Amino acid sequence: MPKQPILVTGAARCGKSEWAETLAMTSGLAVTYIATATIDPSDADWQARILRHQQRRPATWQTILAVEDLASTIERAGDKECLLVDSVGTWVANLLDRSDAEWEDLTHTLLAKLSGSVATIILVAEETGWGVVPAYPSGRLFRDRLGMLSRQIGSIAGTVYLVTGGHVLNLSQLGQKLGEGERLLKSLNPVKM
Predict the structure, then answer these.
(1) Nearest to 107 by CA among 61, 145, 66
(2) Domains plus CATH for the chain?
(3) 150 labelled as ligand-binding?
């Protein structure tokens, strides 16, 4: 039976990866950490960030690098596995050079694999676009693609968490999925003929 994914979203350095790691640890399943970042030895800051993430993870976790082909990695997971995908934003950044049609195909395939997976899947996604519109086309493209993909994942997720200000909010308990509001309003105010 397919399981609904879990989405953990939030701003930079807010603790979203730590919360996702906590969820994975408490799953009771074998955890596979799906890293989407490429390793750049010339970028010391990036290397330090990756090292901090590695040091927090238990030694028993397997790590797989999925820079581009995230859907196939998800497809191979079994029902006794927990996949922790960190992060959706980095995966989007890796594929910014793809055309709109290619991007649509990639996201359609990813969402289909997420919807059909029997594994427990926790995805970490960055929140962007809460401020100034990026001045460069690539920044706008990244913001728009990540925002739409997070929305699409959130629509199929069983639980969505927002991590901000050092606190975790379960948005699935506090709010409603976009689109449900329209159905609720229609049921409360039926169109009279």
Answers:
(1) 145
(2) 6-188 (3.40.50.300)
(3) no
109's enclosing H/E stretch is helix 100-116
Q: What does the alpha-carbon distance between residue 36 and residue 179 come to, in Å, rounded to a whole number?
A: 30
* Region label for 165, one of left (φ > 0), alpha (ψ between -120 and 50) or beta (otherwise): left
From the list 25, 27, 46, 53, the catalytic residue is 53
Q: Is 112 marked within a binding site? A: no
Is 53 marked active-site?
Answer: yes
In this prediction, residue 132 carries a pLDDT of 83
H or E element, residue 120: strand 120-126
Mean per-residue pLDDT, 65-78: 96
Measured CA to CA, the distance from residue 81 to residue 87 in angstroms comes to: 18
Total-model pTM = 0.90
Task: Judge whether 186 is annotated as a binding position.
Answer: no
The pLDDT tens digits for 160-182 are 999 998 899 999 999 888 876 56
